[in-house]
Structures are given as structure tokens and as C-alpha cells.
Amino acid sequence: MDLGAPRQRCVLAALAVDAGKVVPVDRLVGRVWGAAAAPRARTTLHSYVSRLRRAVAAIGGLAIEYRSGGYVLLGDEIDLLKFHDLRARARAGDTAGLLTEALALWRAEALTGLDGEWAREERDRLEQERLAASHELVDARLAVGGGGELVAELAARVASHPLNERVAHQYLLALHRAGRGTDALEHYRRIRERLRAELGAEPSVPLRELHQRILVADPRLTAAPPLPVVPRQLPSEPTTFVGRQEELDRLDAAVTGTVLISAIAGTGGIGKTSLALRWAHRNAGRFADGQLYIDLRGFSPAEEPMDAGEALGGLLHALAVEPGRIPADVQSRSALFRSLVAGRRMVLVLDNAASTGQVVPLLPGSELCTVLVTSRNRLPGLVTRYAAEHLVLSELADADARALLAGRLGAGRLEAEPEAADRLIALCGGFPLALSIVIAHAQIRRGLPLAVLAAELRDAVIDVLDNEEPSASLPAVLSWSLRALCPRQRAAFALLGTAPGPDIGLAAAARLLGVARAQARQVLRALEEASLLYQDVPGRWRMHGLVRAYAATVAQDLPAPVREEATGRVLGHYLEAARAADRTMDRLRFPPPIDHVVPDAHVDPVPDDQAAQAWFEAEFACLVAAQQSALDQHSHAVAWLLAWSTTTFMARRGLVHARLAMWRIAAEAAVHLRNKAVLASTEHMTGSAHVVLGHHETAVEHLHRALALADPVHLAGVHYSLGVAWGPRDARQAFKHARHALALYRAMGTREWEARTLAQMSWLTAFLGRLDEARSFSRVALALHREQGYRTGEATMLACLGFVAHESGCYEESVEHYEQAIAVVRELGHLHGLADGLERMGHTLVALGRHSHAETAWREALGIYLQRGMEAETQRVQRLLAG
Length: 883
Known about the structure:
It is built from 42 helices and eleven strands.
């Protein structure tokens, strides 16, 4: 291809030596025309470039572009770029092959036919690059035992470079390996004399050492090079590994993609090492150049975490590096390690790491190496800086836990005691180490029934899972995680083990720990990083049951006042927060008969009904546990008030059994409060809970005891509840109580409760068939509820109007009222009211012939009744669906 005049070709050469980089116009002019360039040189340059653009475009894969004051040659088909790339890759592996390929790109002297100072200097520089690559190729061939076949090539090179000691060194070694030791010694004599004569210097130390070794016929000069060491360091594969298929698949996907590092995190004893070894053994065939393993002692019973220097020393030793060749400093060791594994397909398991900083110096630089890191810490630095695949292990599924037990104990033993096996699985909570310890107990004590072992585990779980051998002791294994925590974090871990409920939110944690929320968040984050806590729901932290049991034992080492004050703070928090949410849900409710001042209580405002309900949903299990804890701590007022403050929520959500259970605990607390009004309210609330469960006789018995104890203020409420209790069985009796309640409320001037009682009377008159009276009561009560903003009451009256319309034969009007009521209770999350409305509307839909719509409504109602454990209602709707 004609590239034009010499200077035009020189422009292309000036761009090619810096291919991929912008060459400024002034530099191009200097390279082509030199320092004495004519004023028109820039114009001529642009003309040359224009012609060259057309010429290189015809080649394909090349282009010249103008960018920010200069030109750049782009393309993948530039020999110099290929040469540099091959030479760089040769340093990482397959040295001889890549260098041979690189040198084959040189077809003649560089920049042939070009003249000028820059061209001459660049030609010399490129020739030095080619010569250096030639030297490197000879070194590579000598390193793998070459010699005799290199003599002719090196003889010519020695003639061209008589004072180059590197070439002389190569030539001497090649002659010796070719069996020409005498010629080698003679050549050494000649080069020594020439160095003295022309440079006044002796040969270099390496050349003199080689001469001496040839003199003594050192056998290592001709020995075949050692084969690369292929380490096989993986510990034995876990023989009882079960489950974890999803995690194994994720590790497979990471390796087949672009991820080179996988960080496996989790609590001590959860099975991180087993997973890493299982995967590494299953995939050993992928790593023909070896498998490396090192325990970094990040969490060890007796030793400090291994420093990176020691770890690198172990890895280099595994790669057969002689002790004298191992550098002293970490940086140099790390560089040598990367060099040795470059280009080799290897897997490196870094087990039990303490931190990202401990791991980073041990990471290979090669894309062919895969690294598995296990740690109790989450190691976020590996994820953010090195794009590691982050995998957090949780407990085993029940089926996998059962498979582990059956595999070690035999399926027959589990089948002989199925209930005991179920209890063992539940008590171990899918924790592999706990399951293994239980298996060891069962194997060592062969005559011990599984039921006895399950009972021991239930009564003293931490004691049963302890052992004199630390690695077989769950408390010991978990204690190693605490060593990495500061004293404040260890104390927080212990206190969190005593917190009531299955999990904890930030506000409650801050009160438990007695710190500001920002500090509490830092502590929770640190414990989560250490895999001692986890968030299954954002903003809510929980411990595995066994970790929690261990934390509770650690808490016993704290001073009793510290534990008691922490419990008092968190119980006070739950009470105050429940009070605030309850006031938002039912602002018309009468205050409780007692008060309890919580010192330093600061709870978040609850802006609306939806926020109150969301808070109760998140905290309900904790409130139930907090009530029991308060009773155990003899905080009787707190225990009683927690039941009071949670009742509205439980009623709305249809938590009928929990409601009765909380009031039974409240009744125990009430005995100690010695307050008549509290006892009256307890009987009242307990009776109301029995009403919802359909326990009529028991409910009426409690409510009549409440009548006998109640003061005038609370008497109306008891009559109101008796009206509810009698309503389904004897509407006339119920109406008497409702009318009595209405008179009392009107005497007290409480229009809100007057409206509620009118609503009750609306239903009762409807049940009695007095439909016009019921419609009138309903409309008055509906107007009052809307005026007061009482949405629950509004929904109740809309449902009542729907019932009245149905009984009047106005079915379309009935459906319209029911749909309005259902829309309100859906918005409020009032599940009991929703199920009741759906059930009633189903009857009206049947009357209209809309049987499929009725079935849909009844099925939704059935789901709610089943979820809430409401047996009578469930059976009733099942009969409707079956009929």
C-alpha cells in the first residue's frame, strides 16, 4: 500500500509509536520536521493526516482521529501494541510462547526508509526493546532446560554485542549445556580480557559465579528444571454435609461469571468452612494448578489473628519457595505470591478471616485464581473494593437438619421417636454445630432415648451444648466472636440477649442499652458485622435462638443492677410507646384506672391510625414478651397497663387468643396492685375477651363480677359489654344493658360513648326485627361517628344499615352499604370487622343470585377466621361454602 512521501510515512510512524494516545500537533511537527520546521509545517501536517486517514481506512480496523489539540491512531491491528501486550502477558505465564509470538511480529528493522533525528532515535529505542525481548526469551528457554539449540543464535549475538554481560552469561550456560565446557571457559577468558582492556572493569558477580560453577562442574547447571509445585492443601471434605444447594449454586455462578472472590459470612458454627470446603472439593478439577488453604485464626480460642506476613510465608512455603528467598516485608511477600500464582488455575481458601485488611495482601492478581473467604465478619471492604460475591449463611432448613440427624444416627432411630426428633430439630434451630453436638450426645450415650435428650436440651440448652473440647462446644465457639468486640459491644450483646421478644427495633434497643439512638445503631451494626445479629426485616434486629440463649448466659456476668436497670428501661419504653399508639387508635377511650410514670421516656409521635397500627404490628410479639417479663420482674403496673394499651389493637386485628392470654397475665398482676378499680377493669376486659371467643357463660360471669366492683364512671362500660355478650343469644336482655349504658353515658355527657351505645342498640333492634327503629338508631349513630371522626364506628353503622336493608328486602341497597363499610375497615386494617362484613354481604349476594361473588366474599372471610384461630366463625363459614 502506498503511504505517500517519506514525511507522510513519518507522520504515521509518529502516531503509531504512541498508538491509542493523543499526540499533540506540535510534537508531531517536531518529530517529522525537527526543530527547524518551516512555518507551513502545521498546514502540511494536516494535509498529510487527511491523506493518511483515507489510506488507513482502506486497511480496516484502523482510524486517525483529531482530539483536543492533537491526533490519535486507533486500532487493534498495530504490531507495536501487540508486541507490548504479548511481552507484558509473558511476565505472568507461558513466557517462551508469548515472547516467541511477540518477536515474530518484527519483520525488519523498525521505521525502515525514514530519516531524521527523531526517526533514528526511535529506531534505536525500538531495537533495544526488541533485543530485551530476545534476551528474555533466551532466559525463559534456559529456565526450562534449554541450551545446545541456542548456541548458534547466541554466538551471533555475542559477535554483535561483545561486551554485553547478559548475553555472555547466556552463551556460557548454553555452551556448558551443549557439552562444550572448554569453549565456555575460553569465552569467559576472552570477555574478561576485553572488559579489562576496553572498560577497565572485571566481569560482574553473576558472570564470575557462573564461571566458577562451570569450573567445578556444578550438576545443578545441567539438571532438568523442577516441575511446578502443585499444592493440594484442602482439608478433607465434610462427610456429613447436607443442604446448602442454593449457596453452592451461587458460588458456581460466581466462578463461571466474572467474580473472582466469594466472601462467606455467618455466625460461628453455622457451617461456613464446611460450605467452602464442600465447594472447593467438588470443583477441584477446575483448578489443575493446585488448591491452597490457610486458617487465618480470625476467631481462635488461644491465639491472635494471623498477620498477613505470616500467612504469606505459609503460602509461599506451600509453593516451594525456599526460606532464604522469602522477603522480609509484607509488600514484597505479597508481590512474590502474586507472581508465583499468575497464570495458574488455583483455588485459595482463606478460612476464618478477621478483617478485610488481613485478607487483601493475600489476594492473587490473576483472573485464573478463585478465592473463597470465610469470616464471622461481613467483610464489606471485599464487596466494595473487590466486587466479591457476598454470601451470608443462615440456619439449615428443617428437612436438611433431619437429613443430618438421619445420616449420623440412622433413619430408624428417628422413626422410632418421631416427636422427640422433631423437638431436637426445633430446639437446635437449624444450627449445624448444635445438631452435631446433639448427634455426638446421642452416639456416645447410645441407650439414651431421644426424648430424654430433647428434654435435657429444653431445660438447659447451653449446658447441653457445652463441652470441655472447645471446638465441640457451642458456648466456646460463640465466645471467640466476643473477643473481637470492645467492652461496650460485649455488654450490648449480653443485654440484647435479655430483651423481651424475638427481635428489637432501634428505639427499644437504645432504651435497653441506655444510649442515644445513633450510638445504638453503631453498636447494632457492629454486632451485625460480627454475625451475632441479623435483620430479617429492615430496622429490626434479631438473634438466632441459640445465640440469644448464650447471650443471656453472658448477661449473668453483668452486675445485677445493670441488668435490672436495662430491663426497666426497655419495659418502660414499650409501655410508653404502646400508650401513644393506643391513644391514636382510639382517642375516645376512657383512661385506665391507674397510671405509671416512666422516667426519661421519649417515644416517637404517632401521627395517625395507620402509623399506630404499623407500630403495633411490628412490636406486638415484643409487647407480649414484655408483659410476661414485667410480671416476672414484679413490675405489676407495667404488666397490667401493657394489656390495657394493647387491647384496642388486638380487638381490631382479631387476635382473640392473644387478647385473652394478655388479660390473664394482667389478672395476676392486678392481685398485687390491690386496687378495686383495677380489679373491676380486669374482670371487664377478661369478660370482653371471652365474648369474642364465644365463651358466653364465662364472659357473663366475669362481667357481672365487674358490675359488682365498678365505680359509676366504669359502670356504663360494663353494661355496654354485657349488651355485646347477650346480643347473639338474647337481644332483649342485651337491649336492657345497652339502654342502661346509654342513660349512664348521657348523664356523664360523653357524646362519643353515647354514639357507640346507639350503634349497639341499632344492631340489637335489628336483631329483634324492629327495622325502622334500627334504621333510625343507625343513622343517628352514623352521623355522630362521622362528626367525631370515629372511622371504626362509621364502618359498624354502615354494616348495620346493610343488615337492615337486607332484612327489609332491599338487597342492592344492602350491598352498597356493605361495600362502603368494607372499604373503611380495609383502610383501617380491622380484620375482624372485615371478615364479619364479608360474611354478611355474602348472604345478600346469594339473595341477588350472585353466587360466585358470595363465594369469593366468604372465602376471604374464612381466611381471616382461620388465620385468627376463630373456630366457631370458621365452622360457620365452612358450612356456608359447603352448602
